[in-house]
Amino acid sequence: MLERLVGLPRVRVLAVEEDPLAVHVETRLEMPEACMECGSRARVKDRDRVPLTDLPCFGRRAVLVWHKRRWRCPEPLCPATTWTETCAAIASPRLKLTDRAGRWVTFQVGCHGRTVAEVAADLGADWHTVNDAVIAYGEKLVEDPDRIGIVTALGLDETLFAKRGKWRTKQWSTSIVDVAAGQLLDVVQGRDAAPAARWLADRDPAWRAQIRWATLDMSGPYRKVFDTMLPHATQIVDPFHLVRLSGQKLDEARRRVQNETLGHRGHKADPLYRARKLLVLAQERLDEHSQGKLTGLLKAGDPKGEVTTAWHAKEAVRELYSHRDPELALEWVDQLSADMRDRGCPPEVRQLGRTMQRWRTQIAAWHQAQVTNGPTETMNGLAKRIKRIAFGMTNFRNWRIRVLLYAGKPNWSLLPTITP
Ligand SMILES: [Zn+2]
Questions:
Q1: How far does the centroid of ligand 1 lie from the alpha carbon of residue 45, in Å?
Q2: Distance from the alpha carbon of residue 93 to the mean position of ligand 1, in angstroms
Q3: Of all residues in the chain, what percent carry a pLDDT higher than 70?
Q4: What is the number of structural domains in the chain?
């Protein structure tokens, strides 16, 4: 009955201890092992007691203590000398969790996005014990070649994954994303062109040929990756990046005008400082009262109307994406960027206009992609998933596997079949 409860094949229960619950087991032997070097019948030299964190049993944390045989070859000249028995159904060599606990933690951390610390606390295990298992099982799962299917729209995006060392140096990575399906395909180290280009070069040319759309932020390195590796694909600036840039320019204008008019950085009572949160809101989210308040604050703090112009520019950029006609998109982009480069505009807005001019075709291409199965809105959710895992990671290999488990759509039905 005990052996049925323990539920492992070929196992004999030797003893059960309480507080903490520890189940001592050994494997059943049909016959002694043969030496893998010379084929002689091996002798048991001694036993190792290996404690393995198991899944909780009837509401209690449990440890499986495996009395592992150490075998010795009786032939004095045989190079095998001694070795320890293995049994993948109980636990993988080198992992300190049972096999079933290893799969469970991989699913909790990888699929549900729980932290390693949380899951380790559930089992009463050490952080490293759980992390090692997640990486060992997870690596096999994300390497499944069928995980990456046909991709028609590919995006590159930079992600900060750690701040390391004494100076908290920022560690960047590049996310390679299927922007139509909302799937993270891979992450590579750094945010320059070479690693992403190498990743694409490693794919099948037929796979690359199916990519019609290539999305990017307004960065030179990613443009270079697409120019060289996917020259046939239409490049698209992700609206998120342009809208964010217009928000940054508004913020810069607000700070500069604040400083020029009052001679100091924003204080609690300064009108522009008080307007900062209203300025970033989308216009349609301002009710009548907030709209009136914003107008009043700008009147008081923005004598030359520069912040107001930057605010209108930000709203106009957002407005660009409510248009649906791909035939006219380039005309709108050109008109808007020309208006922004007008000499009457504050320098921040003129800068935004010049950036838009440089990326005009890539910005307008978004409208064209909307009428086909191009990039979709699911990207926002994916970016959030990626960011959630990024927090606190310091090792690139661990980060890559964790984020691919969580945002890379691995085939979880394969989890019971893989062995690390
Ligand atoms: Zn031997």
A1: 13
A2: 21
A3: 97
A4: 2
